[in-house]
Design a protein that fits this description.
By secondary structure, this protein is α+β, with helices and mostly antiparallel strands. It has 2 domains: 97 residues, Homing endonucleases (Endonuclease I-creI), CATH 3.10.28; 95 residues, Homing endonucleases (Endonuclease I-creI, Roll). Helices cover 35% and strands 27% of the residues. The protein has 7 helices and 10 strands. A 4-stranded antiparallel sheet has the order 1-2-4-3, with helices on one face. A hairpin with a 1-residue loop joins strand 3 and strand 4. Helix 1 packs across helix 5. The longest helix has 15 residues. It starts with 12 loop residues before the first helix and ends in a 17-residue tail after the last helix. The relative contact order is 0.14.
Amino acid sequence: MSELLNSNFEITQEQKDLVFGTSLGDAFLFTKTGKAGRYEAAHSAKQQDYLFHIYEILKIFSGSALYTCKGTNKNVHFYYRFATKTHDFFHFYVNIFYTLNPENNRYIKDVPSLDVLNEHLIPRAIAYWFMDDGAFYWGCLICTDSFSMEGLIRLKTVFLEKFNIVVSFKKIIVKDVIKSHRLYINPENCEKFVPLIKPYMLPSIFYKLPKKYR
């Protein structure tokens, strides 16, 4: 059951865009039943302003304030995170992003269907996705390592048909083995991609854009 079912508030379009976009990126949706879920996000100190922004938009759902954690990845570093309470609002996103693997009883995350993407992959949602997982790489690169190739093809299809933006796939090769693929938007297509998302980006995240757009 949701811990906030009795709360009287209206869910905004910005909250929907944020959860959809960041679920394509670094955010986690947790569920034990496949129904109501909770949302969690964590970012490094460099992206502190961005996580605070996310928290402010979703804090009505939050079960805790932002808190710091210490991680070790070669060097000790600190990062910020927060988690929401379980709520029916996240049910929709659990269902479109996750499927249950019966072999290990775990949920697998992948890109939603074409119908869902066509409806929900709108500029502000894409901006949140890029702020989460985007990077400057001559053009614009978006980390999509955990998604299936079928999911990436769905994304490529929607970018072309809906926004007339051509995306390609950059292979991530480790020891001569292709481990994953990332979405790449070349400089020519950045002319259409960046104006689509920049109005919704935080200035502190402009460093992820090609230099001419910062």
